[in-house]
Amino acid sequence: MPRSCPKCGNVDIQPLGRGTERLEEQLAELLADTRRPDGEPVRIARMDADSTRLKGALEQQLAQVHSGEVDVLVGTQMVTKGHDFRSITLVAAVNPDSALFSSDFRAPERLFSLLMQAAGRAGRDVVHAQASEMWVQTWNPEHPLFTALKRHDYPAFAGQQLKERQQAAMPPFAYQALLRADARTQEVAQEFLRSAAEHSAGLEGSGHVVVYAPVPLAVQRVANVERAQLLLESGSRPALQAFLAAWQPVLQGLRVKGLIRWAVDVDPLAI
Predict the structure, then answer these.
(1) In this predicted model, what pLDDT tens digit does every residue of 41-61 receive, in sequence order?
(2) How far is Cα 216 from Cα 229, in angstroms, rounded to an integer?
(3) C-alpha to C-alpha distance for 194 and 221, rounded to whole angstroms
(4) Which residues make up the CATH 3.40.50.300 domain(s) of the chain?
(5) Are 200 and 211 in contact (CB under 8 A)?
(6) Which whole-number Å values give the CA distances from 180 to 93, 194, 238, 268, in the listed order?
(7) Which CATH number fits domain 20-167: 3.40.50.10540, 3.40.50.300, 3.40.50.2300, 2.20.28.160?
(8) Is the pLDDT of residue 83 over 80?
(9) CA 13, chain centre distance (Å)
């Protein structure tokens, strides 16, 4: 994300994505003329990290939903995890397509699990079960993930994912490790990773390990700290383990000014 306008250089820029707050505003406009059975306006609540920051805020919002004081609930992933909303009859997932083409090969797996959990929020009350449904907004309705989702067919989805991973030599058919670096600047973080890659040649097991070039993390900057990573892949776990064991003292001996910390993550769950 740019820190300033590429045309005029103004640094006073703000994100205008489809976040929960913007969805809440749009729904309020769309449902402005809709009334509850008692004639009152439709009540919309937003549940995300901002609205539940204060102590007791989450419990208060959940109590309002359970008591029927809320008609429309807008939220992040937190609303799908473990809550027993008895009166919800419609669940809508807004624009989940980004996970279909993510650089992280596990993203579709997490998306399928999340959408299955989200679907489980609707129709939990026997009275509303038959009238309950889920809407998914997508530009790829024929994608195998959504085909399996419509059928609640996890084995079919898992089989398709395993086939793709085998063709691409991805876990569980290969083994991975990540070297992550945090620094004051992105240049320093990548300098450390490049130096680590250069010093990896000739180490035990290096002939069976592919060392990729360093890249910034998807969320590159957190709390004024720049983050980068370097991916390692191997078809042999013993070779990868031997390589990491030989690499460890090399990494500890590297000195790069401005580096805050580094860590090795074996079998990373997120790339």
Answers:
(1) 999 989 887 888 888 888 888
(2) 6
(3) 19
(4) 20-167
(5) yes
(6) 32, 12, 21, 11
(7) 3.40.50.300
(8) no
(9) 24
Q: Which two tokens stand for residue 189?
A: 């973080």
Query: 69 by DSSP, 3-state: which?
Result: coil
Is the separation of the CB atoms in 261 and 182 below 8 Å? yes
- Integer Cα distance of 61 and 81 in angstroms: 15
CA angle 62, 66, 70 (to 5 degrees): 80
192: exposed, middle or buried (Cβ count in 10 Å: 0-12, 13-18, 19+): buried
* pLDDT over 80 (residue 124): no
Count Cβ atoms within 10 A of the Cβ of residue 70 and give its class: 0-12 exposed, 13-18 middle, 19 or more buried: buried
Q: Which residue type occupies 88?
A: I
pLDDT range class, residue 270, cuts 50, 70, 90:
confident
- Bridge partners (DSSP) of residue 93 are 136
Tokens of residue 105, six digits: 């090969």
CATH 3.90.1150.10 fits 175-266, yes or no: no
Q: Is the pTM of this model over 0.85?
A: no
Q: 260 pLDDT band (50/70/90 cuts)?
A: very high
Query: Which residue ranges does the chain devote to CATH 3.30.70.600?
Result: 175-266
